[in-house]
Amino acid sequence: xxxxxxxxxxxxxxxxxxxxxxxxxxxxxxxxxxxxxxxxxxxxxxxxxxxxxxxxxxxxxxxxxxxxxxxxxxxxxxxxxxxxxxxxxxxxxxxxxxxxxxxxxxxxxxxxxxxxxxxxxxxxxxxxxxxxxxxxxxxxxxxxxxxxxxxxxxxxxxxxxxxxxxxxxxxxxxxxxxxxxxxxxxxxxxxxxxxxxxxxxxxxxxxxxxxxxxxxxxxxxxxxxxxxxxxxxxxxxxxxxxxxxxxxxxxxxxxxxxxxxxxxxxxxxxxxxxxxxxxxxxxxxxxxxxxxxxxxxxxxxxxxxxxxxxxxxxxxxxxxxxxxxxxxxxxxxxxxxxxxxxxxxxxxxxxxxxxxxxxxxxxxxxxxxxxxxxxxxxxxxxxxxxxxxxxxxxxxxxxxxxxxxxxxxxxxxxxxxxxxxxxxxxxxxxxxxxxxxxxxxxxxxxxxxxxxxxxxxxxxxxxxxxxxxxxxxxxxxxxxxxxxxxxxxxxxxxxxxxxxxxxxxxxxxxxxxxxxxxxxxxxxxxxxxxxxxxxxxxxxxxxxxxxxxxxxxx
Length: 554
Fold this sequence. Notes:
Blueprint lengths: L5 E9 L3 H15 L5 E8 L4 H9 L6 E2 L24 H11 L3 E5 L5 E6 H10 L5 H4 L2 E2 H7 L3 E4 L5 E2 L4 E3 L4 H7 L5 E4 L3 H9 L4 E4 L7 H9 L3 E4 L4 H7 L24 H9 L5 E5 L5 E6 L10 E5 L15 E7 L13 E4 L5 H12 L5 H14 L10 H14 L3 H12 L7 H5 L3 E6 L2 E10 L2 H22 L3 E8 L4 E7 L3 H9 L7 E5 L4 H16 L3
Parallel strand pairs: 1-2, 1-15, 2-3, 9-10, 10-11, 11-12, 15-16, 16-17, 19-20
Antiparallel strand pairs: 4-5, 6-8, 7-12, 13-14, 18-19, 20-21, 21-22
């Protein structure tokens, strides 16, 4: 039943922290209680850091699903379930099926439903208009059953499952004496009811005689035909109609496209397939599995009506921090506690932004407003997020609402905030076995102001010694990362929770000047100690913005 519901992903920012993950899980619990016909799925854009992993394990919760791109995929398009056909069916049957299905392309599959090729309406038209070779029926290895079906014929002598694979197709208009000069072994001869002509064709080595207008074939002719391995077919159609339609009996394999097929997987993003669809004259394209099992067909017009994937954003409202292709998604809601960012929506959305220290605090308020009971494990997650974002209530972002929410949630979860906070930060700061890249992107965000772009990462620890080791480990990497991102500046905050201070690493020509203008402290060898600074959101970034705006004359 759930599979029939509309999926809505609830997702935090890139390089998710504990608040981003826990708020997504909790808000999915809230929304799924509303029974509004949607299924809400908690998601993440990046790997879970050690601190968050500890929290999830501590409260018996699984990681949210990984969502690296919210853009529409082929599976979000209207996939037409046009049935696959065998390569043996006649061109006429394929044409009739196209008319019945209002399709211009048919997929050709094998017995296991693997895609072998396609046949288009243009391919059929070409076969009818351009093929003048009288041996084409044989070259196509046309099954007799196709000829019987196409010409509404009956087989009096021969095997319907046999194949016409050698000889010309001729019309017997001359007298028997002349016919003997141009009929060759294996030919198919279209003729009327003249006994002498039928006998002459058989004795000349014809492989098949095709008698028109439903004429009766004498028993003696049938016997002679059988003795000479000559098939005998009778059709109610006249000679002219038979001559016109005989080519339509050829199997589609003779004209199907097998090579350089443009196919798509259900997981392909529509932005990636758009150019492939536009740069070809083919109008319909098969959708297959990785094992080449045929699923259905899509066309260029399906791109116009593609269903956008729906998403609710928590703990961010900046485009640079959002999941890839967020501009192609349907944003339904935003729940955040940061400054108003750069995201734009096509329609009005529910936007809840409050000046508190943590998104989890807002989620707690929503539980209370709706009168929902908070499960013990969810309470543990929300409390952990508040402790993490407020640095155990030491951050200047912490408000009285955050403290009250944490106390209420800790009571439900059965934990002590101070004791659990130390356990959580200790688990989260165990970074000895992590690579510089893993440490750098554990809590990293990109910022853009007045055409100035830079990145800021942050690590919180209760150990000055550990932070010192991390600084040595990160110094070579921060320089490389700045070049890879194409930024003019890059920063990393090494925050000591106990001392309530941050050692700020900076790289880039303008980085030191920006720090000096913002904090009146000059970095030495790319490092500066900022006493009392622990919050990226409320202390570091606002100070940088003020300086950038002044330099821009704003």
